[in-house]
Amino acid sequence: MRTISVRAAMARGAGFLGFWLLLIGPNPADLVAGLCAAAAATWTSLRLLPPGDGRLRYAALARLALRFGQESIMGGADVARRALSVRLPLRPGFIVYPVRLPPGPACNTFGALTSVLPGTLPAGVDDHGALLYHCLDVEQPVAVQLAIDEGLLIRALGGTHDDT
Amino acid sequence: MSLVLDIFTIVAVSAGAFFFLAGTVGLLRFPDTLTRLHALTKADNLGLGLVVMGLLPQAEQPFAVIKLIAIWLFALLAGATVGQLMARAARRERPTP
Amino acid sequence: MTIPDFLLAAAVFVLAMVALGLVRILRGPEEADRMMATQLFGTGGIAALLLLGVATQAKAVLDVALTLALLAAFASVAFARSASSSKGDDPKETSRQ
Question: Which residues span the domain enclosing C63?
Fold first, then answer.
């Protein structure tokens, strides 16, 4: 824990303080509370999520955010269509997706990202470390979509292993 | 200009309300816990997003806009994380082959 | 019909959807079904509060919505943690969180 760079801590602290100011408003009398809150938040975040060595690539991150938005609209529309259809077209089941990302924050981010994909919901890992997805319709090409998302996430995190 | 913004508000908020309706219908009609979780997380998150988007032009000061967006991001983050955690818990309660 | 009236009507509609969803949740049958109530309030309740807050220009309501967003997320995560640890299987999976 001692080796955490001062730069990373300062950057996070400034980010938290900025967010606090946005929420509360820039009143000099409140600033002491804001500084305390930002310091506590920085300490917590450095403990729970130490800074990694990979560098974020912002262009890939922006593409990922755009895709996340599109997917959440499609996912919501897909659920609405199935729920309001008279025949209730569901073929629920599980698929196994062998994830390439290592277990940890990156893999958890992948789970959160893909939980908005149409018809899929990550539901844990199996014995071999592959992700289990619950699907509303197991006949949809879910794995293909998941692979696209994973490739984008690996690039956004600056990973180099089998980058396609 | 304000008429255009008002129409945007009405369209976006109505669309958001529609997705809340769809989410509730799914919650009532879907057959098991995991499929109901789909309905809840996906449709309601989109509904909240559309409601927030529709409210943005009606906010009076810039701080309210920022706060609305922050609330939306929090709810989005919470929904995406909680959805998968609850799916894990539900899968354990009744193991599916 | 003015914009605040429309927003109030939308808030009532979304609240009605949340109430309908709660009926389903009260029937259960599993614990995960019941915990979906927090998620339902976490999105539907926040949407209704935001609509109310902007319609009446009551700024404090936005803070209430922000707090609700955080609390709903914490409650659901706490449930998911307790559900997985009480079953006691697969410690690897819980430690991944």
Answer: 3-95
